[in-house]
Amino acid sequence: MNLNVAYDFLPKHSSSHAAMVMDHFGIGFETGQHVIAEELELPIETGDVVCFTGASGSGKSSLMRAAAAQLDGVLDIDSLDLGENILVDSLGLPVSESMALLSICGLGEAQLLLRTPQELSDGQRYRFRLALALSQNPQWILADEFTATLDRTLAKVIAYNVGRTAARRGVGFLLATTHEDILDDLAPSLHVVCRLDGQIEQTRADRKKKESASPPFSTSPLPPSPTGRTSLGGIIAATPSASPAT
C-alpha cells in the first residue's frame, strides 16, 4: 500500500490579535501544504492489527484514514448507530453469543447487559461500539482514539482481547492512539509511529493467526462470585474480598 497524505492550509484573514501573536513570535500564517506522508509504503495484509501511535497533531489519524480508504469492508466504529435497545438485545445475536462478545469488550457485568447505550459512561459506550462493530463481521474495524477514554488497566485488558479476537475471527483492525502502554498486550501486526517532526517509523511483527491455547470465552452465565462481580470471559476488574477478622 502506497500512501500520500497532505492537506492545504486554508487562507485566513488577519486580526489585531493575530498580528500581536505574529509580532510576538516572529511568525506568519502557514501557507501551502502540510505533508504527513509522501510515497509511504505500508505492508498491510488481510487480518492485520495495525496500530498508529503518536502525539496529538502528528498525523496518525489522518494516516490511518488514508490507509482505510484503500481497503474494502472497513467499518468505522464512530459511524455506528447505537440504538436504544438494552445491550444484550442490540447485537442481533443469540443471547449466549451476545453475552460473550460484550464480555470480550469489558461489558460482561450483569447490570450492564440490561442497560441502554444512553445509560453508559463514555468509556463503556466506546467499548460497546467495539462489540457492535464485531457483531457485524466486517473485514476491517477502524477505531480512532483507541482506549483513550479507559483507565489504563482496563485499556490493556481490552487491547489484549482485541488482539486475540482479531486472530480468532480473522478481522483486521486499524487503530490510532496516543497511548503506547497497550502495545505489549495488543501485539499489533504492524506498528506505525508518527512523530511531530514528520518522521514515520514502522515495525512489522509476525503474528500467528491461530487460536489461543487458553480456553474459549464462556457463553453461559457463571454463578455470582464472592466479590459480587460476574465475569463471562475476559477480565473486568479485580475486587479483593474482605480479610477475615483476627
Characterize the structure shown.
With 246 residues, the chain is an alpha/beta fold. It has two domains: 1-41, no CATH class; 43-204, Rossmann fold (3-Layer(aba) Sandwich). Helix content is 30%, strand content 18%. Strand 5, helix 7 (152-169) and strand 6 form a beta-alpha-beta unit. Helix 4 crosses helix 6 (122-135). The longest helix is centred in the middle third of the chain and has 18 residues, at 152-169.
Topology:
Layout lengths: L1 E7 L7 H10 L7 E9 L7 E6 L5 H9 L5 E3 L10 H4 L4 H10 L5 H4 L8 H14 L4 E4 L8 H18 L2 E6 L5 H4 L3 E5 L5 E5 L42
Parallel strand pairs: 3-6, 3-7, 4-5, 5-6
Antiparallel strand pairs: 1-2, 7-8
How many distinct folded domains?
2
Count the DSSP helices: 8
CATH architecture of the largest domain: 3-Layer(aba) Sandwich
- The CATH homologous superfamily name of the largest domain equals P-loop containing nucleotide triphosphate hydrolases
Overall spatial form: globular
Tally of strands = 8
Spatial separation of the terminal alpha carbons: 65 Å
Overall pLDDT: 83
Global Rg? 21 Å
Write out the strand line-up for the largest beta sheet, numbering strands in chain order. Answer: 4-5-6-3-7-8
At the fold tier of CATH, the topology name of the largest domain is Rossmann fold
Spans where pLDDT lies below 50 across 5 or more residues: 209-246
The major β-sheet equals:
6 strands, mixed
Q: Structural class given helices, strands, pairing?
A: alpha/beta
Estimate what percentage of residues fall within beta strands: 15-25%
